[in-house]
């Protein structure tokens, strides 16, 4: 089986199993058209008006944000490829949100090297602080020109597209700056602490 033109080199083959690696995708990933919902628990329903997020510094100082405050920050349109550790990827997904940097700029991050993202419902995931800076991570609230649906993390989710998608915390409600790294929910269960899809950092020993 072959594919050509702009079609990626993904072949389902007659067995439905054979896949040719697409050089535009991280190793072991294949493209899907639909947007799967991957949630470890029930979907919290939080309205934009009720949404709150707390930024906590290493010294314990807290800065609260609400939706109106978030959207007063510079809003950006983002096009990103998504890579889930369960091996599906989506290319060219469109989002609107605020760079995480814009929130962190307002706080004293002295001594901070890592961030724990917290979600409504208790989900957590850890990311190095520098990975949230320089236009590489956003707090997003629109997807494909629509308000982000609850099942995909609305009203606001973290988007860190250069890491596996489990790092993109849905229903985000906290960013805690830390001096040392610590595992979040999936990382405590054996997922990689960093999660670079291009280096296939799926599990802690990868
Ligand atoms: N709060 C929260 N965020 C989460 C999850 C979750 O269970 N709870 N699942 C993660 C995982 S494993 C993936 S692959 C993506 C899935 O996002 P989607 O449901 O929009 O596809 O969300 C990530 N963020
Ligand atoms: Mo995932």
From TrEMBL:
<dbReference type="InterPro" id="IPR036374">
    <property type="entry name" value="OxRdtase_Mopterin-bd_sf"/>
</dbReference>
<dbReference type="Pfam" id="PF00174">
    <property type="entry name" value="Oxidored_molyb"/>
</dbReference>
<protein>
    <recommendedName>
        <fullName>Oxidoreductase molybdopterin-binding domain-containing protein</fullName>
    </recommendedName>
</protein>
<dbReference type="InterPro" id="IPR000572">
    <property type="entry name" value="OxRdtase_Mopterin-bd_dom"/>
</dbReference>
<feature type="domain" description="Oxidoreductase molybdopterin-binding">
    <location>
        <begin position="41"/>
        <end position="186"/>
    </location>
</feature>
